[in-house]
Write a sequence for this structure.
């Protein structure tokens, strides 16, 4: 197998249902870009760092005060500070979802599976 050959590639159905695909569509609509691939989104995220992280905040539905600045020292990786003025309540954000589906799914190498619901 060639070094650049992926070990696994998702089906188009999985790609279409992926949260990353939903984020790409939401980001494209918000900024007026057409992201047809992850590589295009990645390129844009590097060129527009602060706008990208603002989109992530909105897409994830974080509850809190974002603050004035979305990014400090964005050129430094590691070392950048994301939302340095933000104020949020972790419990409020972690516990806002409810329902019958799983909140956490653990799958061990020994095939053990454990689920915690909301």
């Amino acid at each position: 197998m060639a070094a650049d050959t992926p070990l696994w590639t998702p089906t188009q159905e999985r790609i279409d249902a992926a949260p990353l695909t939903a984020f790409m569509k939401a980001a494209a609509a918000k900024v007026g870009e057409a992201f047809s691939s992850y590589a295009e989104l990645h390129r844009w995220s590097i060129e527009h760092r602060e706008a990208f992280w603002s989109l992530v905040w909105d897409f994830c539905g974080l509850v809190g005060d974002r603050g004035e600045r979305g990014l400090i020292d964005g050129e430094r990786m590691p070392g950048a500070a994301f939302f340095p003025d933000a104020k949020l309540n972790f419990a409020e954000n972690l516990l806002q979802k409810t329902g019958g589906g799983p909140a956490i799914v653990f799958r061990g190498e020994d095939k053990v599976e454990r689920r915690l619901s909301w």
Summary: The CA atoms of residues 63 and 90 lie 9 Å apart. Strands lie at 71-72, 81-82, 102-107, 113-117.
